[in-house]
Specification:
The protein is α+β, with helices and mostly antiparallel strands. The chain has two helices and two strands; from the N terminus they run H-E-E-H. It starts with 6 loop residues before the first helix and ends in a 15-residue tail after the last helix.
Length: 78
Amino acid sequence: QNYLVDFNTAEKMKLSLETSEKIKFDDIIGNSYEIMKEELEEVIKPAVDNLANEIAQKILEFNEKSPNAVFCVGGGSN
């Protein structure tokens, strides 16, 4: 939402967080941007925190106590 990018571009941006300090992308209008890794992390932090909280609540709901470990798999766990 913040950068007006499509799903595939957003995925590439997310994956770039692990390997790049600067992230380059084009929005859906065709404007090119280069932002610092920290800027993108700041923008997505509320969504990541919300998702982590929802996952934690479901684990407690289904497990009835805190487990010793949680393993995350799939692209969303990145």
